[in-house]
Design brief:
This protein is α/β, with parallel strands linked by helices. The protein contains eleven helices and seven strands. The chain has a seven-stranded mixed beta sheet, sandwiched between helices. The relative contact order is 0.15.
Length: 251
């Protein structure tokens, strides 16, 4: 698994893991955030498997396997405890990372992620998209790519086979009725215009599932791609929330 990371690592800065979504690799998705967040955090930004320079010969396509690979990559870099910021598909990976490694994961930020969706909700959203979800997640043409951008943003690749396998797994995966309740403080961020991919009501459903250690922030006039539509507001929310863990641990 390929990582982009802060060099040199500063001992006076907390560590922050950034997990990208399905629309592209980390370098593209976080272009409006790395500069700002790197002033406060040591950043660790992996390309998830089959995005960017990351790959595996293993056949496992689950977000649990992605989470294990991320954890191993951080361990090899000597990162023992870290905050997490994740968006969309990255949120699925982050959720299982937090569930499996509670001693390592501090505060968690989940943006525009449909983890916890019921089977009925998943079918409704696929019907609203009105075209092949696989073609949108793994665009084959300029038309498909424009479709992905249009439904992701409110304001205006290689290893296709493996990406399709991951998308197929995600779409056919049954709703997890025993989704673990995380122990971490969790900030759930959503764009109020994300009506097609993951509608806003899912933010509040996830909050109810996680309980009092979670809270929701809704950013106005923003679609699914909050990182592109409202990076300044998003960066401010991430920074203030994740730094709160450092202040509390120093008391």
């Amino acid at each position: 698994m390929h990582f982009w990371s802060s060099n040199p690592r500063r001992s006076n800065k907390p560590d922050l893991l950034m997990l990208h979504g399905y629309g592209g690799n980390s370098k593209w998705q976080f272009v409006h955030q790395v500069g700002s967040l790197s002033r406060t955090f040591n950043l660790y930004v992996p390309d998830l498997l089959f995005f960017g320079k990351s790959y595996t010969k293993m056949s496992d396509r689950t977000e649990v396997f992605q989470a294990k690979c991320v954890a191993e990559g951080l361990r090899r870099r000597g990162v023992e405890r870290f905050g997490v910021y994740s968006i969309s598909y990255g949120g699925f990976v982050a959720y299982w990372l937090a569930a499996m490694y509670p001693e390592a994961v501090g505060r968690l930020v989940i943006v525009s992620c449909g983890i916890g969706m019921t089977e009925e909700q998943k079918k409704d959203q696929l019907n609203k998209i009105g075209r092949s979800a696989l073609k949108l997640l793994v665009p084959e043409s300029a038309h498909d790519l424009r479709g992905l951008v249009n439904i992701s943003m409110h304001k205006a690749t290689p290893v296709k086979k493996q990406k399709l396998e991951m998308a197929e797994y995600l779409l056919r995966e049954k709703a997890d009725l025993n989704l673990p309740i995380l122990t971490q403080e969790t900030l759930i961020i959503w764009g109020d215009k994300d009506a097609v991919i993951f509608p806003v009501n899912l933010a509040y459903e996830l909050q109810r599932h996680l309980g009092p250690k979670s809270k929701v922030e809704i950013i106005k006039d923003t679609g699914h791609a909050v990182n592109m539509d409202a990076p300044i507001s998003l960066n401010a929310l991430i920074t203030s929330f994740v730094l709160g863990d450092r202040f509390e641990s120093s008391k």
